[in-house]
Amino acid sequence: MDFQLSEEQTLIRNMVHEFVEQHVRPMADEIDRNHRFPEESIAPMAELGLFGFNLPEQYGGSGIDSVAYAVASEEMAKVSASHAMIMGSQCTLTTPILVKYASDEIKERIIPKMIAGEALGCFCLTEPGAGCDAASQRTSAVRQGDSYVLNGSKMWITNAPQSKIFIVFAMTDFNKGVKGISAFLVERGAPGAEGLSTGHPEEKMGMGASHTTEVVLKNVVVPAANRLGAEGQGFKIAMETLDGGRGGGAAMATGLAQAALDSTVAYTKERVQFGRPIAANQGVQWMIADMATRIECARLMTHRAAAAKDSGLPCTKESAMAKLYATETAMYVTEKAVQLHGGLGYTRAFAVERLMREAKLTEIFEGTSEIQRIVIAGQVLR
Amino acid sequence: MSKLANIYVFSDKPSRIRDLIGVATPLGDKVTAIVIGAQPEAQAAAAAGAATIIAIPSQEGVIVEDYAPSIAEAIRGAGAAGLVLLAAGKRGKCLAAKLGAALRAAVVNEASAISLDGGLAVSHMVYGGLANATETISSPLAVVTVASGALEAAPCQAVAGAEIRQGVFVPPAHPIRLVKREAKAGQAVDLAASRRVVCVGRGFAKKEDLSLAGDLASAIGGDVGCSRPIAEGEGWMEREVYVGVSGVMLNADIYIALGVSGQIQHMVGANGSKTIIAVNKDKNAPIFNFADYGIVGDLYKVVPALVAALK
Amino acid sequence: MNIIACCKIVPEDQDIAVKPDRTLDLSKAEPKISQYDLNAIEAAIQIKEQSGNANVVALSAGAAKTLGNSKIRKDILSRGVDSLTLVADDSLEGRLPADTASVLAAAARKTGFDLILCGEGSGDIYAQQVGILLGEMLGVASINGVSRITAGDGTVLVERTLEDEIETLELALPAVVSVTADINTPRIPSLKTILAAGKKPTVTETLDGIGYQAPAPVAAMTSVKAPEQSDRKKKIIDGDSDADIKAFIESIRPELTA
To answer: Which ipTM did the prediction report?
Structure first.
């Protein structure tokens, strides 16, 4: 058993590090504060291949493993979780669905554009009345000849305002519960898609630079060829995609936590109170030891789940555990980090304030901690 | 150790010859200036304090670097032992290496100290300014480049009746053709000689805002410099005015850093200042460890207030 | 056109610690490609992209224990060069520029070249002379301080921004050119180039194999020490309220009016 990153994985980590330090760090606070989508980052990210992790080389992807993706996502989130979100939405939530379920025509036409960053995608599952409970979807897809007509609205859709590619889950049969859900590709701007619109970005607590909006579908007509998978297969597609996405969420949370710890270590070694650095106090040391230990554990679980996925082993439980543990660790660590930075930690003088706001979202998105526990329990009690 | 018998100085800039002779005088018994040109250039070197001058006839269209074989020949003819001092610009460094190769001499660029205790030893910065390395020279001749103001220069008297010898032009084996030469727009100030310097760092959001630094500099009667990223990354200011490794080494009385983080590579250029004042909104910026006075605050707020108060 | 881009592997200076006796602790400093050499590599790749017909070899000389690190080798290869030639020998650890240049010269003679590109200085000892020494040792034209290169037919046009002038020079090939840090912004390797790096050829040479003969030493590095910190007053005011700014101005006023 080898716990070392491979040379390639290490070089990928260094590459992302170089990129975020050069390109992202100067804007990280500003885009968060102004809730500004970092449009100028998309082309450079695509150039580096960051939208092509574990995607087939024939479409311009790199075919690289999920551990490398986790490493990259962690490194990205250390500086800007919003960037990690944008990367995650593209790499794990949308493009893989097309790779697996779209027709050859769609694949060849769209996937290279997504990997090249020319078309961003978004994953449209959640609805105002159907968050964790996907079966209570109200969005409908009605077959009309060679087309489907979609009506309904989706909420909390990451990257929606900037997206061209919408993966929309809708009910083709309201009588079948989750088995009545099907997945569709809606291309913004395509004939028939005039009724697709996106709302104003939500005023979120954190990750303001990654826009989350409502998506409204009013009589949106898509060709039947845009159905992804079979009718009724949508829920399965959504769940397996979220399984894959969890690893990214876990890695992002690990990165947030690591950044908070790094800042805390530097600050507590330097901040002098009562004549010595506060890191010299055992009470502070114990907090730091707990923070570091949990991060280590979160990272190992994240990499382990990613490695299982790459080996084709079952990873539902592992991914859910990693997501649950890493995101709760991010919350735990960033909260402690703010505490150890004292009054300054509660101001924008240090990134820990932002990291704590960002960490909270990781416990909620892509399946809340509670849902992860249900998934885990379901696997354990089987 | 006693002084070196011979020191040779060369600079294509008359203004630097005096400075180099000033550095050479305490180190050597005899200082020889090598000039490109004839009587006027030789007389200028004599006026700067050179007792002996070797004048190499100037050639049409030959770049200074291509006089390396001629300068090497002049030094060889005079014994090729001791020390050659050159100005540490790009030309000086290029010439230094060419002379080093031709004369099998050790070459040290941007010397931070030259010592004669126990043999010739020359120090220079390494690891981006983190440390100084001292090289003990074992070749009979050493070639050293010196940045303006980096080493103490003794005052020099003009020499009346200096000995002027005629050098020869030795053509280079692989001549470099000068295609075009343009003066740079706007002569940069010689910051190394400034008494008061206001320094622009990355805390400035855009080029237009640099006028703030200019206002402060006029209020205190000083000049404006910058950190390396402002010159080489943003290109907002001339390379000649960036402070730090491979840039200007300050000898100012007052140095005011505005939005400069204070990386070691920068501070090695600023530390020669008597008083360091820092304005930076990041409380943890390293600059505050090097500062005499500082304020953790927004330079856009602090600087106008400071300018108003000084008027 | 055959281009050699020279690159040195140096310790990451961010991770160098200063010990209490002012000597340096390099034990935690990971090896990396010297920053300014990345400019030389990038310049070589840009020439290749412009001319369409060039082969770029990265050349590095250093201790076998450093260059034996295959991650470092892949790092160099991921920067876009076609192949890598290493001269690896533990005796090359900590060599001064005249030695380094003579090793590179021997290796370049064996590899063959039209143009050699060097960075302005290495991230460790920053001697700023290897490129020129190399050119002189190889008996070809050499120049430093270059901030733009255009490859011509058997020549290169280079632009140098000097203290008070900008000059354009033409050098007949073969030649050695040292570039400045602002000639380009080295690109960050992409996922693709990282994955392709392992498949590119690496040639490892020995000192005997390149016919290296050590020149007579001209200098020895006898001490490396951090400078003494001058004591500063460190009177820092934390905050920029009007009262803080006023206090700050009053604290520095005596210095400014002295």
So the answer is: 0.92
